[in-house]
Design a protein that fits this description.
The protein is α+β, with helices and mostly antiparallel strands. The chain has 2 helices and 7 strands. The protein has a single domain, classed as 2-Layer Sandwich (Alpha-D-Glucose-1,6-Bisphosphate, Chain A, domain 4). The relative contact order is 0.26.
C-alpha cells in the first residue's frame, strides 16, 4: 500500500531564499523534530544526485534514512527519493514553490510505501502524516522566516 500526504503554506520570504533553505537538507531539523541528525554525504554543490543521510525518530523508533535529490530546478522545484529500505519509505517527495505576492507558496508532499511488515502499518503512518502535514508546513514557514535575510 502506498499513499500521499501534502501540506502547503505561504512563507513571507522571496522564492529564491525559500528555495535555497529547503534545498539544503541539513536545514531539516529546524522544522522537523523527527530528524535528529542529517548530513550531506556527496561532494560538490547541492543538485540532482546529492545524497543526505539522516537519523530520524518515528513512533519511538530510531531509523537511518538516506535520500537522493532527483530534481533540483531553482527556484521552483525540488524532488527526492528514499534510498534506504525501512518498513515505511518515501518513494517520492518534493517541494513546489510559486511566487505569491511578496512571499512564496510552498507545497510539500511525500508518497509513503510500506515494505514487508510495514505494509500493515503504512495506513497508520499515512494517516498520521496527513494529520500532521499542515503543522509541518507551518513549521517550515517559521523556520524559513526565522532565518536571517
Amino acid at each position: 500500500m502506498s499513499g500521499q500526504f501534502e501540506g502547503a503554506v505561504t512563507v513571507n520570504r522571496p522564492i529564491e531564499a525559500v528555495f535555497d533553505f529547503l534545498a539544503d537538507g541539513e536545514n531539516d531539523p529546524k522544522f522537523s523534530p523527527r530528524v535528529q541528525e542529517i548530513r550531506k554525504t556527496t561532494e560538490g554543490p547541492i543538485g540532482a544526485g546529492t545524497i543526505y543521510a539522516s537519523t530520524v525518530k518515528d513512533a519511538g523508533m530510531r531509523t537511518k534514512r538516506e535520500f537522493r535529490l532527483t530534481e533540483v530546478e531553482r527556484p521552483t522545484r525540488i524532488r527526492w527519493t528514499e534510498l534506504s529500505k525501512n518498513m515505511i519509505t518515501a518513494s517520492e517527495g518534493g517541494y513546489d514553490l510559486t511566487p505569491e505576492g511578496d512571499g512564496t507558496r510552498v507545497r510539500i508532499f511525500n508518497v509513503l510505501e510500506g515494505h514487508g511488515i510495514g505494509k500493515l502499518i503504512a495506513p497508520l503512518a499515512l494517516r498520521a502524516a496527513r494529520k500532521g502535514a499542515d503543522d509541518m508546513a507551518r513549521a517550515i514557514k517559521a523556520a524559513v522566516e526565522g532565518e536571517a535575510p
